[in-house]
Design goal:
The structure holds 2 protein chains of 2 kinds.
Chain A (H helix, E strand, L loop, with lengths): L3 H12 L5 E17 L2 E19 L2 E7 L4 H15 L12 E2 L17 H16 L5 E19 L3 E20 L2 E11 L5 H4 L2 H16 L6 E8 L6 H8 L4 H5 L20 E4 L20 E6 L2 E2 L6 H6 L8 E2 L8 E2 L3 E4 L6 H6 L3 E13 L5 E13 L2 E6 L2 E6 H6 L1 E4 L4 E2 L3 E5 L2 E9 L2 E9 L4
Parallel strand pairs in A: 4-6, 8-15, 14-22
Antiparallel strand pairs in A: 1-2, 1-5, 2-3, 5-6, 6-7, 8-23, 9-10, 9-14, 10-11, 12-13, 15-16, 16-17, 16-18, 18-23, 19-23, 20-22, 21-22
Helix pairs in contact in A: 1-2, 3-5
Chain B lengths: L13 H14 L6 E18 L2 E19 L2 E7 L4 H15 L26 H5 L2 H16 L5 E20 L4 E19 L2 E11 L7 H13 L10 E7 L1 H14 L2 H5 L20 E3 L22 E5 L2 E2 L6 H7 L7 E2 L7 E2 L4 E3 L6 H6 L3 E9 L1 H4 L6 E12 L2 E14 H6 L1 E4 L4 E2 L5 E2 L2 E9 L2
Parallel strand pairs in B: 7-14
Antiparallel strand pairs in B: 1-2, 1-4, 2-3, 4-5, 5-6, 7-20, 8-9, 8-13, 9-10, 11-12, 14-15, 15-16, 16-20, 17-20, 18-19
Helix pairs in contact in B: 4-5
Classes of the chains: A alpha+beta, B alpha+beta.
Chain lengths: 463, 461
Amino acid sequence: MIEEAVLQRVLGAALRTGGEFAEVFAEDRRSSSALLDDGRVEELTSGRDRGAGIRVVVGETTGFAHTADLTEAGLVAAAEAAAAAAKGGGGGTRTVALTRRATSRGYDIEAYPGDVAKARKVELLTRADDIARSSGSAISQVSVSYGDNRRRILVANSDGLLAEDDTVRTFFAVSCVATGDTGMQTGRESIGHTVGFELFDMYDVDELARRAAGRALTKLAARPAPSGQMPVVIASGGGGVLFHEACGHGLEADLVAKGASVFRDRVGQRVASPGVTVVDDGTMAKEWGNIAIDDEGNPAQRNVLIDDGVLTDYMWDQLRARKEGRRSSGNGRRQSYQHLPMVRMTNTYLLAGADDPDDIVASTERGVLVKHLGGGQVNTATGDFVFGMTEAYLIEDGEVTEPLREGNLIGNGPEVLQRIDALGNDFAMGPPGTCGKDGQGVPVGDGVPTLRVSSLTIGGTAA
Amino acid sequence: MTALAASPLDPPDDGCAELLDLAARVAREAAPSEQVEAFVGRSSYTTVRVHGAEVESFTAATTAGIGVRVVRDHRQGFAWAGSLDPDVVSDALAEARDNAAFAEPDEWVGLAEPDGVAPVPFDAFDPSVAALAAERKIDLALELERMVRAGDPRVTGVRVASFSDSSGRFAVATSTGVAGTSRGAWCSMGVLALAADGDETYTGHGTTVGFRPDELDLQEAADDAVRRATRLFGARPVPSQRLAVVLEPRLAASVVGLLGGTLTGDRVLKGRSPFADRLGDTIASPLLTLVDDPTDHRSYGADTYDGEGLACRRNVLVADGDLQGFLYDSATGRRAGRRSTGSAVRGISSTPSVGCQALAVAPGTGTHDDLVAGLDRGLYVQSMTGWHSGVNAVSGDVSVGVEGLMIRDGQLAEPVREVTIASTLQRMLLDITAVGADVEWLPGGTGCPTLVVGDLSLSGA
């Protein structure tokens, strides 16, 4: 993307005002998407974004500037702006010798979406629309979206690091509206992986459309969710966002350092029930949060955060790790070249236990089975979180009975970790997610086995 | 051949004129059988974040981009790029043309046509925003952090205090004769306070926004952050019950925004709005009157033109509880047999869609304190979480986590956390029992007073 000699000169310009650390992050992203709605392929969109973000660190201060101009003059101007913003004490000339770091994600992209005819992408949309609409006469509206992007990044920094990555992601989603006597209900299914068009060899679009339609149809008969505290069984693959919110964010070292995490000073302590092991793993092949290197050039890692109930470590980016004299855990990510990196999750999941998932439900007298969770949100300082149930059922006398309307669950991260009283042997990853933090979104994955939390508050309207 | 109309107003400055010229040049590339629209923007911003009396980061940048829409045989294609380089712009036009071939035709699809509605000029571009020195921005952020730290002994820190400003220009031109350009500048500050007492930690957020730096009210933002971070100590769930809820302007605005979204033409026409067939019906308490009015220059969403280049205008959505109208862009307007309401919203990287720009609830009577005093038992909500996951705009189901203070005998009482409130949007609108006089103009563009909603389900202990 940018020649080594140019990178060296740009880093030199960035360090001229006395910066301790400087970095060039260049990105070239091409994306395409297609949308079917209301029975018609509405539009195809192509996008192209390319540029570089340059940061200079002096003491506690980071100066940052970005530019869409990747010529040497454009990069040097951005480097000078970043250096001026960071304002180091002394001047001087430093020459950085760059060493290219080999990167690998351990598998190949089989079909680059840019090489796939647009007509084939469009075919998938109409096919999913047909299947969803034929799933039931109550299906009143369907939208189907396809998206792919290819993101090439280059990172060079004053420590001499030079690394590049080339990431392809492909996404597909079906959303249905069902209309009945009680109003309208929605059902959505999505798939997304860090792969090319082979995504559609991994999944059956027909099945996806049927499931989305089925979810909306099922909810037509749903009764209001109960309100109050009760046991909650989370189905395999459907609720990884619980751990993303309940503990993931609180284990991000930047928030911990600012005193904004309930997990501060808890490393080495028991924070969860025995048997609970939580991992953040950027190396997980083909998953939505897969990266070969993070956006600071550090290789992706598998990081065990909670091991058998004991907090083992936080997640780290370069800046935070540097300040504490340790290595980054490969969790420095950013939305684009226009953003500063910060500590972010990749694929966050809870390892399987030994329980039979059917037994977990059967041993629950009265509670809620959550098949699928929507998004969630956490206040890392208190650990209080909420997340939405997009498919849930009542459990009565150990049997799954009626479907429930949507509602939020609310709980407290540290408390929920202690209240996990059953862990299934049926681990699965869930649908692709976008994690938002300080206004930046990055792709993340999550996964759980079937599990039970002995008590959570269900935010329904029924008594 | 295609004719290009001149913009009905002169461009406010050379920067706007240059963008309009570029947009018009692209639109002129339209072949006889096609329509072409170019939306071009350029903006500059700075963001200063401070922490622990030090500058944590200082970001400065200028971004620019173009979105090109091509319509041929009622098929629409779109492409965008984050650059205005001539080769990138011509690539975007070529891609948009190619994409159009793959869409399915729809008789309503097409660009906006001049509709004769005169634009109301809005030019909030105060030179003092761009002229503010970097040192001054840093000082303001440091000052805000200091004020928060000094605000209460229980404040243990500030996660971040920030200053941001942005100055932007955009232009849109079409081969159907629409052309418009405008500019805007604003600045804002935010702070997130952390307070601890024993083993409890709470956060409190304060913000201030202005069209000029001297409109920023640091004291108000600091007081707000400190008050929010320090009044929840000892909070715990209360038992599940039904009760009245007081939503201050920033939270009421979320409910109003949810309602506004259900009144957009696209959702109405495609059967995704619970109010689609309710025009003329009473859908809310008679206390509620709601307009979407980007010509109201008090709104931070005010503008001269919409995303398709048509004049922004005042649209009444709900009057005294009765549903008066929906919002349309040109395509959904044609499909509904109506005119565009000038409600196309967009960014560089997306085609226009119908959206609310400057929602405003007409003020009622009574201060916030009066509204609290009028309740025997209720919940004053300080913050809501899970709005994006707990709200379904199609079914209207609403379920969110809240923190706040109980109201007992007209007084704020014990703090509450880890509870949810739930209802449906349809129910909540009818249950509005009071609308305050205290309209606040929020950063998102909405103007909203305090609302009291009579009867919600609280789930707690």
